[in-house]
């Protein structure tokens, strides 16, 4: 197995036999320095991991790095699937509030923290004690410093030479929930939470929704005749409505305006094209006329030369 493929360095890890698969095997993780389209101050100490094991947890990677480069070098890990899952599938944000989110002033930090706690309480409890990763999943790992990154690549090179691969799960023990039968039983139990817990989450959800709807309506009412910093007034639909026009309608109006301007440009361009063609034709006609005149002069000179008789 090569030590690298393209920009990625290959880290082989030894996976011990399990009751579900009683054969030891080797899994390959692909690692490179993190480089994103929007560079951050932590890129120098961040690694990008591809093809992480399906049973990966933060504790597994913490134990893995402790085995490779020693304890205290691992800072944090972010799984791509977890980052996407953190975005709520059903938003408590009303459509009107979402449209005005960029217009209103920022809340104080205390209010933001309180709102975050309320939104967390509005979520239903998770039914899995431990998540499995899809095949080929990715993650980003932050280490404490740049030197730790260099130590990781040196440890990988050493593992390839000695063929002594770090053992996946070594040192984790019972620090993470176990898989198998116990994992499925706990999922079945958590899938049916107490009715009081469900009612509490639903009540909090609609409390947040109604609160944001009221805030959006009040903000829209204040903005009806209030010019912004550029001197523009928010357009509203109907005299009795407080909400501003939808973004989609504004985009449609903008598109109609652009199409109208493009039509004018095309018409103007056609007019100029007609003028240029007419000018070109006039220039060609003038050149033909001058050519005919010059030709007549040459013919006249030739005829005059033929009649000339020198004196004797």
Automatic annotation (TrEMBL):
GO terms for cellular component: CURI complex; UTP-C complex. It holds the Pfam family RRM_Rrp7. CDD domains: dRRM_Rrp7p, RRP7_Rrp7p. Residues 6-172 form the Rrp7 RRM-like N-terminal domain. Residues 190-311 form the Ribosomal RNA-processing protein 7 C-terminal domain. It comes from the Eukaryota. GO terms for biological process: ribosomal small subunit assembly; rRNA processing. Gene3D superfamilies: 6.10.250.1770. Residues 109-122, 248-265 have a biased composition (Basic and acidic residues). Residues 86-122, 229-265, 282-312 are annotated as: Disordered. Belongs to the RRP7 family. This is Meiotic recombination protein dmc1 protein. It comes from Zalerion maritima.
């Amino acid at each position: 197995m090569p030590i690298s493929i393209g920009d990625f360095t290959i880290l082989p890890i030894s996976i011990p036999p399990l009751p579900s698969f009683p054969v030891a095997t080797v899994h390959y993780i692909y690692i490179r320095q993190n480089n994103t389209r929007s560079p951050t101050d932590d890129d120098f100490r961040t690694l990008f991991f591809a093809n992480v094991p399906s049973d990966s947890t933060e504790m597994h990677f913490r134990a893995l790095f402790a085995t490779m480069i020693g304890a205290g070098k691992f800072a944090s890990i972010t799984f791509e699937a977890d980052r996407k899952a953190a975005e709520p599938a059903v938003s408590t944000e009303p459509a009107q509030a979402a449209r005005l989110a960029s217009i209103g002033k920022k809340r104080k930090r205390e209010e933001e923290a309180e709102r975050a706690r309320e939104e967390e309480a509005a979520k239903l409890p998770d039914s899995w004690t431990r998540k499995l990763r899809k095949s080929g999943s990715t993650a980003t790992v932050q280490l404490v410093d740049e030197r730790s990154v260099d130590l990781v690549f040196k440890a990988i090179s050493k593992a390839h030479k000695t063929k002594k691969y770090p053992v996946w799960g070594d040192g984790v023990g019972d620090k993470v929930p176990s898989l198998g039968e116990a994992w499925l039983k706990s999922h079945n139990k958590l899938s049916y939470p107490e009715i009081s817990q469900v009612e509490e989450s639903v009540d909090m959800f609609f409390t947040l929704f109604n609160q944001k709807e009221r805030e959006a309506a009040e903000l829209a009412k204040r903005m009806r005749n209030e010019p912004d910093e550029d001197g523009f007034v928010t357009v509203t639909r109907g005299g009795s409505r407080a909400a501003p026009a939808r973004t989609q309608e504004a985009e449609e109006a903008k598109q109609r305006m652009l199409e109208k301007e493009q039509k004018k440009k095309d018409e103007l361009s056609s007019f100029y094209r007609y003028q240029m063609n007419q000018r070109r034709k006039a220039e060609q006609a003038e050149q033909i006329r001058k050519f005919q005149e010059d030709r007549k002069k040459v013919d006249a000179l030739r005829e005059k030369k033929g009649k000339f008789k020198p004196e004797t």
